[in-house]
Specification:
The protein is mostly helical. The chain folds into two domains: about 110 residues, no CATH class; about 35 residues. Helix 1 packs across helix 3. The longest helix is centred in the middle third of the chain and has 43 residues. It starts with a helix and ends with a helix.
Amino acid sequence: MNSTTKDTSHAASSGHSTLATHFTKFAQATAQWTGHPIAFLLALAVVAIWIVTGPVFNYSDTWQLVINTGTTIITFLMVFLIQNTQNRDIMAVQLKLSELVLAMKGAKNQFASIEDLDDEELRELHDDCRARVEMTLKHIHQRGSHDHRKPHPTAPRAKSHRRSRAAARKS
């Protein structure tokens, strides 16, 4: 690879990175602003103004087209901004969870990158986890049934009849 090719690919990569950075900043700012109550009130005001102007424009097709076109365009653009924000949030949560899994002693490190598995691998892992949970619950139940002094951890506590009668007398 010669230096011209390296410079071109770096420039393209840098341009893409700059575009992505600007889009990310724009998406975050827009998501922050549109999630604010004032943005909702502004949108509500636009709809109210549109409704009030209905009689002025005799509820014409153009009057309806204005709101339909405006809301469609805004919805179309917001889908991309919301998806970008959601992707970033999901990735951040995945990274935090991966860090916790990797930091836990005895944890299976395969869970740190679980989001990269295909559907079949996820089902298999889910079935494996479910089997482990059932085995653990069975073990806890067996251990609890041998110790009659302690109630099963998931069993509801029995109410004392003495407390119930005392409470009934007071009322």
